[in-house]
Amino acid sequence: MINIEKITGNKKQFLDLLLLADEQEDMIDRYLPDGDLFALYDGDLKSVCVVVPVNSDTCELKNIATFAKYQGRGYGRALMVYIADFYRKHYKTMLVGTGETPAILSFYKSCGFEVSHRVKNFFTDNYDHPMFEGDIQLVDMIYLKKDLQE
After folding, report:
1. pTM to 2 decimals?
2. CATH code of the domain containing 90
3. Nearest 5°: phi and psi at 32?
4. Structural domain of residue 15, as residue ranges?
5. N or C: which terminus of the chain has fewer CB atoms within 10 Å of its end residue's CB?
């Protein structure tokens, strides 16, 4: 049975999982303290995500990760449905930024997100090493948005 909890203390205990989606700890440290962390359990821990406020109308999904052995089983999607419903009362729009990788962009689009804008050279400017998703080097950040009021 799936159970999703909002974690209020000791968020760094989830660092190993957060690092799957954002592999540089000091980047996670920029949003984790002020972000809401949610953990999805199905027996044991399967997925986590972090959402931060941007302004009074918009929040941003900064990190979502599922342990590799549980990927493709719907846990990430279940977490996306949960947080969209959770934040619907407080925000009009949710943003998410990701690298330009077809599988990840397809996942977000299937969750109701549409491409919003691009931040040129985000990954090359903000990370201390080249970032890759499979064999694709991440350069620009692609932002997608979802209308939470629909």
Report:
1. 0.91
2. 3.40.630.30
3. -65, -45
4. 2-147
5. N
d(CA 144, CA 148): 13
Please state the domain count of the chain. 1
pLDDT in tens, 51-99: 999 999 999 999 999 999 999 999 999 999 999 999 999 999 999 999 8
The neighbouring-strand residues paired with 61 are 51, 96
Which residue do the tokens 């997608």 mark? Answer: 144
Q: How far apart, in whole angstroms, are the C-alpha atoms of residue 9 and residue 32?
A: 11
User: Which amino acid would we find at residue 150?
Assistant: E
* C-alpha–C-alpha distance, residues 27 and 126, integer Å: 8
Q: Choose among 25, 26, 32, 65: nearest CA to 51.
A: 32
Give the gyration radius of the chain's Cα atoms. 15
Look up tokens 């599988």; give the residue: 103
